[in-house]
Amino acid sequence: MTDVTAPSEARRILESLGIGADNPGAWNGSWLATKGPAIASVNPATGKELARVRSAQSAEYERCAIAAEAAFEVWREWTAPARGEIVRQLAEALRRQKEELGRLVSLEMGKVLSEGLGEVQEMIDMCDLAVGMSRQLYGLSMHSERPQHRMYEQWHPLGPVGIITAFNFPVAVWAWNAAVAAICGDSMIWKPSEKTPLCALAVTKIAADVLEANGAPPIFGLAIGDRNQVGKPMAADPRMRLVSATGSVRMGRAVGQVVADRLGRTLLELGGNNGIIVMDDADLDLALRAVLFAAVGTAGQRCTTTRRLFLQRGIAEAMKSKLVDAYRSITIGDPLAADTLMGPLVDTVAVDDMMKALDTAREQGGKVLIGGERVDRSGFFVEPTLVEATVQMPITCDETFAPILYLFEFDTLEEASAQHNAVPQGLSSAIFTLNMRSAERFLTAAGSDCGIANVNIGTSGAEIGGAFGGEKETGGGREAGSDSWKAYMRRQTCTINYGTELPLAQGVSFEV
Ligand code: NAD
Predict the structure, then answer these.
(1) If pLDDT is split at 50, 70 and 90, which confidence band does 8 have?
(2) 163: Cβ–Cβ under 8 A, 6 or more apart, which residues?
(3) Is there a common fold for 7-270+475-491 and 274-455?
(4) Is domain 274-455 in CATH 3.40.309.10, yes or no?
(5) Share of the chain above pLDDT 70, in %
(6) What is the CATH number of domain 7-270+475-491?
(7) What is the value of pTM for the model shown?
(8) How far apart are CA 306 and CA 410, in angstroms?
(9) Residue of the nearest CA to atom 35 in ligand 1?
(10) Cα-based torsion angle of the residue sequence 298, 299, 304, 307 in order, rounded to the nearest 10 degrees
(11) To bridge 127 with a disulfide, which of 91, 151, 413, 500 should be the other Cys (CB 3.0-4.6 Å)?
């Protein structure tokens, strides 16, 4: 264990990002004098309070929604490349603040510094991608069946977007949505996790400065509050033309039902239960490194964390013993220290949930190979844990947001694929093999049923250029690259008659 962050360093980071001891929790073009209960942001590495944020109540949410509608009416008139220029400047501002913002992510959420910085880099990459997209919001043109008619599709801004985010990516997930929604011409309101309010404040301050310097409308609204005061009103609000919600399956089910009831649109990015299949012919050293990062990185608190490892019988024992050795050497401690590989869990509830899941796993016949305990010190530290398991254990179908890796053995790829797919979630998956037939088979419709399928790469750490998201209970949403921007726009099919006749489609005749 390494030392935990000094309080003076925490103060320095907060001050450099303009965060005081007590902060308003909503922005709609101005910082609102929010009167809700204070949310205490806690450093998970020490268990101590970092600062407080006065939470937004439904009245402040309403003020944000009114402002978002007004901002949308102005913003949609800006050309898409002009909107892209604002996002370009946002990327520049993030580059200037990368070090401090990355440190804040580590301080408030607990991920190690290289991952905190990586998260800010992901925001920058996302902005850069969106700038390019702002000149590529293409529609198709079609040949009309009617003479002297022209038909094409165009994409219009959608309207205000509600963005609900989880604690584990406290800044990047906002950027995945906000950078793209902005170039598409949408305004938005961000409801971040109550566990990471300072990250949301810092990002909104940076974004607000960029908007103000350019005389742009306040499209990047913020309402920090709980699910009752902000989350539920947002889901029920018909002004929010899209609700993009990232979090647990339970949250997605609740939000999805409310939005569906008003026939609104959702983009759901929910929990995963990701698996890696390691074949007998795999490069085991490569597989080991990939499994370690994917299972232990972010202390197992990524939606794409590897939670299930399927080992072909011939290499199973060798791989298990390599893993046990590697787990023994993982340095746990202060996420801001250079030699730390694993920081704390986010809070004491997460630690309790992990311990309960391990008790259940033991009751169901699982055998802990290494780890399985709390680390005896202040903060919310646990040991990364390997559990020998069978697919008959119901607990292995659940996502426990902690560093537990279940190990299974199999004989054939068909058997492993079936076991891999036999969970309700469908986010990320991977196979390690040097056999082209096995690799390609895993990528067919009969192979992985996930939104992401990798060969000789772990399940976490996706690049922003592709569309990101998952199937089944993961919610079906897609964000980031490829054509994911279409979720933030409305499609319009236009047909123009430049002739003197009025022919009807399908040969219908209607003459009076
Ligand atoms: P969570 O579901 O507890 O909370 C997520 C957000 O939803 C928070 O802002 C919370 O306040 C809000 N919320 C909860 N219930 C709500 C309701 N009824 N109405 C409106 N808002 C509500 O999740 P968490 O613990 O913060 O994050 C961990 C979960 O997020 C994991 O399941 C993880 O897999 C998932 N996640 C998924 C992705 C993805 O892209 N698929 C990315 C990150 C995290």
Answers:
(1) confident
(2) 173, 174, 177, 178, 181, 188, 189, 190, 191, 244
(3) no
(4) yes
(5) 99
(6) 3.40.605.10
(7) 0.97
(8) 17
(9) 247
(10) 160
(11) 91
